[in-house]
From TrEMBL:
This is Photolyase/cryptochrome alpha/beta domain-containing protein. It comes from the Eukaryota. InterPro entries: Crypto/Photolyase_FAD-like_sf (IPR036134), Crypto/Photolyase_N_sf (IPR036155), Cryptochr/Photolyase_FAD-bd (IPR005101), Cryptochrome/DNA_photolyase_1 (IPR002081), DNA_photolyase_1_CS_C (IPR018394), DNA_photolyase_N (IPR006050), Rossmann-like_a/b/a_fold (IPR014729). Residues 58-195 form the Photolyase/cryptochrome alpha/beta domain. One of its GO terms (molecular function) is FAD binding.
C-alpha cells in the first residue's frame, strides 16, 4: 500500500509526463530554465515590429478560451475596436479539444456548463451580427495550425485572444505567435483572467492603479452585410461533449437548474449576492450549513464572469453600504484576490502543472495508496461525518463549500496519508468549477466542527445521522450515539484521528529532513 505508482497516469492520465525532479523545479526557481510565460513574452517581443505592419484583412478574429462573455473582456474589446475602425466584421472562434478536457481532468458537469454557456454566447453575439464559429479538434497539438488555417480562410490578418496561465496553453500560444507571424497574421494577446496580471505581485495594486479596475466595453454590432459575407458561420452548431464527458439526462436537468449558464446569470447572481448574502459574508462565510457564499465559482471558472467585474461591483456596493464598519464585502474581495494569487503562482512556478506542489520537497513524503480508504473518502463513507457530508455534497451537486474542501483535503493527506494528487484529480473530475490553479492552491488546509455548529450540513447530506441529537452527530461512535448510527448503516471511522495525525506529522518531518 505504501509503494509509489510507477507513473502518475493514475492521477492525471496519458497526457501527463513523468514526475519532474526537485532539481528541475529549482532550475525554474533560479532562472536556469525559462518559464513558459517568459517564452510567450519573448515570442511576443520578437514579433512585435513585424505585427505592427500587418495590414487589415477582410475580418478580425477573437479566439474565445476561458473568457466566454461579452462584458468586460479585454481581448474582445481590442478585436472589436480594430474591426470597427476598419469597417470589417468581427468573427468569434471557439475550438473544443477532447484531449484538452482529458489532460486537464475536466469534469462532465463542467463540460456541460461550458457547452451551455457557448449556446448563450452564440445567441448574444448573433444579436450583434457577430458569428461564433465552433468546432471540435481531436488532437490538441493540431490547434495552432488549425487556427492559422481558419484565419487564412476568412482572410483575417489579426487574431486576438486572452492569456491562459497553464503550462501547455502558454507553450501553445508562444508557438502560435511565431506561426502566425510567419504567415502574415498578427496574434495579439491580453492579460484578462486576473484583476492584476502575473509578475505584479502586489495584489492590492488595484487600489493604486485604477486601470486594473476599469471594465472593458461590450462589442458593438458588426457591419450589416456580415450575415451575407459570412453566412455559413452563423449556422454553426455547438459541439457535442466527448463520450467520456457526457452527463446523463437526469444530471443535465439537475445542473441546468442549479447552475443556469451564461454571463447574464453570472452577473445577476453577483448582484443578488452583494445585495443580500454579501452583507453577512464576514459572519457566515465559514459556515458550511448555510447559504452564505456567492456560488459564483462556476461562472468565474468558465469566464462567463470576469474577476475584475466582481471586484468593481463589490467595491461599488461597499461604498453604498450604510454601515461603514461593515467589512463583509471587503472580505469577499480578498477571496477574489486569492484567485488571482493562485494564477500568479501558476505562472511563476510552472512545475505545479507538472505533478509537483508549491514546495517540491513535499513530494518526498512516503504516501500510502490504500484503495479501500480512498474509495471510502470518495464515496463519503469514512465514518467522519463532516468529511462524509462534504464528499456527498460534491457527488450530489458537483460543488463544495470552500471550507469543506479544506476539511476533506486535509483529511485525505493528513489522516489517511494518501497522496494529495489523487484527491486533486478527483476534485477536478467532479467539480463544476474545477479551476486548476485554485484547486491546486486549495489543497492542504485543516478544519473542524466549528464550520457546522448547528449540524445542518451533516443532517442534510448524511441522512443516516439525521435523527442524532446535538453534538454527538459530529462523532457518534465516541459521543454515545454509536448504536443509533450503526443501526442506520453509518460506518465506523476508518482511522483513529489522533494516531493518524501523529503518523502524518512524522512522515512530513522525515520528508523535509531528507
Amino acid at each position: 500500500m505504501r509503494n509509489k505508482p510507477r507513473t502518475l497516469e493514475l492521477f492525471y492520465g496519458s497526457f501527463t509526463p513523468p514526475e519532474m525532479s526537485n532539481a528541475r523545479c529549482q532550475a525554474y526557481n533560479d532562472g536556469t530554465l525559462e518559464r513558459p510565460i517568459e517564452t510567450l513574452e519573448h515570442a511576443c517581443r520578437d514579433t512585435a515590429d513585424q505585427n505592427r505592419d500587418v495590414p487589415i484583412g477582410k475580418a478580425v478574429v477573437h479566439w474565445f478560451k476561458t473568457d466566454l462573455r461579452l462584458h468586460d473582456n479585454r481581448s474582445l474589446q481590442k478585436a472589436q475596436e480594430l474591426a470597427r475602425d476598419n469597417n470589417v466584421p468581427l468573427i468569434g472562434l471557439y475550438i473544443l479539444s477532447p484531449e484538452d478536457f482529458t489532460a486537464h481532468c475536466v469534469s462532465p458537469a463542467r463540460v456541460d456548463f461550458i457547452l451551455r454557456t457557448l449556446q448563450r454566447l452564440q445567441r448574444d453575439l448573433g444579436e450583434l451580427d457577430i458569428p461564433l464559429y465552433m468546432e471540435m479538434q481531436e488532437k490538441r497539438k493540431a490547434i495552432p495550425n488549425r487556427v492559422v488555417a481558419l484565419c487564412q480562410t476568412w482572410e483575417a490578418h489579426h487574431l486576438f485572444g486572452n492569456i491562459e496561465y497553464e503550462v501547455d496553453e502558454l507553450r501553445r500560444d508562444a508557438k502560435l505567435v511565431r506561426l502566425c507571424s510567419g504567415k502574415g497574421i498578427a496574434f495579439n494577446l491580453s492579460h484578462d483572467t486576473c484583476v492584476v496580471p502575473p509578475w505584479l505581485v502586489e495584489l492590492a495594486a488595484g487600489a493604486a492603479n485604477p486601470d486594473y479596475l476599469e471594465a472593458s466595453e461590450e462589442p458593438g454590432s458588426n457591419p450589416r452585410d456580415t450575415r451575407q459575407s459570412f453566412a455559413d458561420l452563423f449556422d454553426c452548431k455547438v459541439p457535442t461533449p466527448p463520450g467520456n464527458k457526457t452527463l446523463t439526462e437526469e444530471a443535465k436537468k439537475k445542473f441546468e437548474k442549479l447552475y443556469p449558464a451564461g454571463e447574464h446569470e453570472g452577473l445577476q447572481r453577483l448582484e443578488n449576492f452583494l445585495e443580500e448574502k454579501g452583507k453577512q459574508y464576514e459572519k457566515n462565510r465559514n459556515l458550511t450549513s448555510g447559504d452564505g457564499t456567492s456560488v459564483l465559482s462556476p461562472y468565474l471558472a468558465a469566464g462567463s464572469l470576469s474577476a475584475r467585474t466582481a471586484v468593481i461591483t463589490a467595491k461599488q456596493a461597499n461604498k453604498n453600504c450604510l454601515d461603514r464598519n461593515d467589512s463583509s464585502l471587503a472580505t469577499w474581495i480578498s477571496e477574489v484576490a486569492w484567485r488571482d494569487f493562485y494564477k500568479h503562482v501558476l505562472a511563476h512556478w510552472p512545475f505545479i502543472c507538472m505533478n509537483k506542489c508549491f514546495k517540491p520537497e513535499h513530494t518526498n513524503i512516503e504516501w500510502e495508496y490504500d484503495e479501500a480508504k480512498f474509495e471510502a473518502w470518495c464515496e463519503g463513507k469514512t465514518g467522519f461525518p463532516i468529511v462524509d457530508a462534504a464528499m456527498r455534497q460534491l457527488r450530489g451537486s458537483a460543488w463544495m463549500h470552500n471550507r469543506s474542501r479544506m476539511v476533506v483535503s486535509s483529511f485525505l493527506s493528513k489522516d489517511l496519508l494518501i497522496d494529495w494528487r489523487r484527491g486533486e484529480r478527483y476534485f477536478m473530475e467532479n467539480l463544476i468549477d474545477g479551476d486548476f490553479a485554485s484547486n491546486h492552491g486549495g489543497w492542504g488546509f485543516g478544519s473542524n466542527e466549528r464550520f457546522d455548529p448547528e449540524e445542518e450540513y451533516i443532517r442534510h447530506w448524511v441522512p443516516e445521522l439525521r435523527d442524532i441529537k446535538g453534538k454527538a452527530i459530529h462523532d457518534p461512535y465516541e459521543r454515545g450515539a454509536g448504536a443509533q448510527a450503526e443501526k442506520k448503516g453509518y460506518p465506523r471511522p476508518i482511522v483513529e484521528h489522533g494516531a493518524s495525525r501523529e503518523r502524518a506529522l512524522a512522515q512530513f518531518k522525515k520528508a523535509l529532513q531528507s
